[in-house]
Amino acid sequence: MNSKWNKVIYKLWAPIYDLFFAKGPFKRARESIYSSVRFAEGDRVLFVGVGTGADFMHIPVSELTVTAIDYSKDMLAKAKEKAGGQLIDFLEMDAQQLDFPNDSFDWVIGSLILSVVPDGEKALEEMVRVVKTEGHILIFDKFVPKEGSQNIFKKLIRPVVRLLGTDIGLSFEKIMGVSRNRVRIKEDSGILFNGMYRKIVLQKK
Fold first, then answer.
1. Which string of b and e fits 99-125 if b means at least 16 CB within 10 Å?
2. Class (C level, CATH) for 3-204
3. 167-194, pLDDT tens digit by residue?
4. CB of 89 within 8 A of CB of 66?
5. In the chain, what is the straight-line distance between the N-terminal and C-terminal CA atoms, in Å?
6. Cα angle 43, 127, 139; round to 5
7. Methyltransferase type domain: from which residue to which, for each copy (predicted)?
8. pTM of the predicted model as reported, rounded to 2 decimal places
């Protein structure tokens, strides 16, 4: 995957994305994820790779200061439609190079983004950088199991799936990299498809 190719792919995905990732099991997964999240009124929240804004319906937008970024202007356009006039700051931006100062947000949320960007480790480093000390990072994404090897079929089709704009062979434990020493893991639980998709909550030290 590379950033230019992702722009092409997600231009194609934008009109149909919600049919796959904002309904049925994915909608229920998001409902479950956010049911236990406790925002404080006035919290600054950053959505990294907001996509079509499928998370908006699950958070109290009017009580928060929300910024949403995406590399695809087509996905951002869909997210703006979904926001329905709510006060959200939308910006076209690369998740691997966030244009915000250190320690800017109380919450950074990455739904289905680390497995999409060319360099998930760099994107996670940026999420850690811009969240405040004691602030939280909420991740919802697909990762290979913590232990054991990926099955041979997934290994074979991984390059093909990457051409469609996502990675089915990403290890969260590996992309933690240098971020590992800057956060504590508060939750790591399987949330969808027998744990293939996980909810991970990090807190910055």
1. ebeeebbbbbbbbbbbbbbbbbbbbbb
2. alpha beta
3. 888 999 999 999 999 999 999 999 999 9
4. yes
5. 32
6. 80
7. 48-139
8. 0.93
d(CA 43, CA 70): 20
Amino acid at position 167, single letter: D
In whole angstroms, give the CA distance from residue 72 to residue 7. Answer: 6
Residues 83-131: pLDDT tens digits?
A: 998 999 999 999 999 999 999 999 999 999 999 999 999 999 999 999 9
Handedness of CA 126, 87, 6, 193 (dihedral sign): positive
Task: Grade residue 146 by pLDDT with cuts at 50, 70 and 90.
Answer: confident
CA distance 195 to 190: 4
Q: What Cα–Cα distance (Å) separates residue 46 from each residue in 6, 195, 198?
A: 21, 25, 19
